[in-house]
């Protein structure tokens, strides 16, 4: 079976899997400019915090590869481009983290060609590193599953949301292979259906026993004793362990607490924002209200109905049982147990 990838570097351009067309069509887009990459990120053709970060690093390279000014002029150009790219999706810190890391590496280069080459190298390194980190994270997560775990996940955290295998979904896939996961429940994840379109597709492809449910079936399933564990990904984790993730995650965490079900979060350290403690300070991306009033291009609400489309919510740390990273399973108090990211992990460009 062909390995899944969100994007590939083709020597002169990026091939990007258009995730908005899945599961019905597998189509690759050719992305050769910063603007094309920004548009792909904005339209969620590439999505999932780690994949968006990697795409952002490529956007920076594509935007600056034709730079013809001096070394001194490159500095403001780099910073301006990094700010523009990072602003496309403000909640997932991976995007700002990745472009910051690329800018920091380019700053150390003595010439413009060397700086531009380093931008490409950073993007390729990020792709490779994320793959490796996902693999370690998946192994670290196995002990939380117990023996015959019936898990609920949310949104989509698989291979194409990352540089490689995925985060929460990689643990569940590996758990299934090891016989530790018996079943996975997938809420569809309104309004854009990442659960129904992407998680269901990836788990089916991997042969994992899984059932799709509407988002509002989660409480009923838990009340019936059919969920042993909730395992989700993250878009930003603060220094004290508050977790921003797809809108609806907070509801699942509150339900899990009510029904005394462990609630775990899986993310690589690139998702930890050490500059913030309070999750209330995480900027929440607001999307086009048409994503709520329309479905597949058709209106499902009265004309001009006001609607709100927050893309993410924040689960407070006290509702989180543990956070799994490439370095292990971290337990509360997270301010003391979360592992520091590398020095490239600055907050915003
Ligand atoms: O808006 P999306 O589809 O980019 O949201 C994705 C999520 O919320 C994921 O759970 C998160 O990015 C983790 S991906 C490993």
Mind sketching the topology for me?
Layout: E1 7-9, E2 14-17, E3 28-31, H1 34-42, H2 49-64, H3 71-86, H4 93-107, H5 112-141, E4 149-152, H6 168-177, E5 181-187, H7 194-205, E6 210-213, H8 218-223, E7 229-232, E8 236-238, E9 243-246, H9 249-258, E10 263-266, E11 272-273, H10 290-293, E12 294-295, E13 298-299, E14 312-315, E15 322-325, E16 328-330, H11 334-337
Parallel strand pairs: 4-5, 4-7, 5-6, 7-10, 8-11, 10-15
Antiparallel strand pairs: 1-2, 2-3, 8-9, 9-14, 12-13, 15-16
Helix pairs in contact: 1-2, 2-3, 2-4, 2-5, 3-4, 4-5, 5-6
5-S-methyl-1-O-phosphono-5-thio-D-ribulose binds near residues 44, 162 and 233.
Care to describe what's here?
This protein has helices spanning 34-42, 49-64, 71-86, 93-107, 112-141, 168-177, 194-205, 218-223, 249-258, 290-293, 334-337, and strands at residues 7-9, 14-17, 28-31, 149-152, 181-187, 210-213, 229-232, 236-238, 243-246, 263-266, 272-273, 294-295, 298-299, 312-315, 322-325, 328-330. By secondary structure, it is an alpha/beta fold. It has two domains: 7-132, Four Helix Bundle (Hemerythrin (Met), subunit A); 136-337, Rossmann fold. Helix 3 packs antiparallel against helix 4 (93-107). 5-S-methyl-1-O-phosphono-5-thio-D-ribulose (MRU) binds at residues 44, 47-50, 92, 155, 157, 161-162, 167, 194, 233-235, 245-246, 311. 5-S-methyl-1-O-phosphono-5-thio-D-ribulose (MRU) is lined by residues 44, 47-50, 92, 155, 157, 161-162, 167, 194, 233-235, 245-246, 311.
């Amino acid at each position: 079976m062909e390995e899944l990838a969100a994007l590939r570097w083709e020597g002169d351009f990026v091939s990007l899997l258009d995730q908005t067309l899945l599961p019905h069509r597998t189509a690759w887009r050719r992305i050769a400019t910063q603007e094309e990459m920004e548009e792909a990120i904005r339209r969620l053709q590439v999505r999932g915090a780690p994949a968006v970060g990697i795409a952002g690093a490529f956007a920076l390279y594509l935007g600056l590869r034709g730079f013809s000014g001096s070394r001194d002029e490159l500095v403001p150009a780099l910073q301006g481009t990094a700010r523009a790219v990072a602003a496309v999706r403000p909640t997932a810190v991976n995007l700002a983290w990745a472009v910051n890391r690329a800018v920091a590496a380019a700053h150390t280069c003595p010439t413009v060609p060397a700086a531009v080459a380093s931008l490409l190298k950073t993007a390729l390194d990020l792709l490779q590193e994320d793959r490796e980190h996902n693999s370690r994270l998946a192994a670290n997560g196995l002990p939380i599953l117990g023996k015959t775990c019936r898990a609920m996940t949310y949104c989509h955290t698989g291979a194409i949301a990352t540089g490689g295998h995925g985060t929460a979904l990689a643990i569940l896939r590996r758990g299934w292979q090891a016989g530790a996961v018996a079943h996975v429940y997938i809420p569809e994840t309104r309004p854009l259906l990442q659960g129904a379109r992407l998680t269901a597709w990836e788990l089916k492809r991997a042969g994992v026993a899984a059932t799709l449910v509407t988002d509002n079936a989660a409480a009923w399933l838990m009340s019936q004793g059919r969920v042993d564990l909730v395992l989700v990904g993250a878009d930003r984790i603060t220094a004290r362990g508050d977790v921003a993730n797809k809108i609806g995650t907070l509801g699942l965490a509150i339900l899990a607490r009510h029904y005394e079900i462990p609630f775990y979060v899986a993310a690589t350290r690139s998702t930890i924002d050490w500059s913030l403690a309070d999750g209330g300070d995480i900027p929440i991306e607001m999307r086009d209200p048409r994503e709520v009033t329309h479905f597949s291009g058709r209106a499902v609400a009265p004309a001009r109905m006001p609607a709100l489309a927050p893309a993410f919510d924040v689960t407070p740390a006290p509702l989180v049982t543990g956070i799994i990273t490439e370095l292990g399973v971290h337990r509360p108090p997270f301010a003391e147990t979360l592992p520091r990211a590398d020095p490239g992990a600055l907050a915003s460009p």
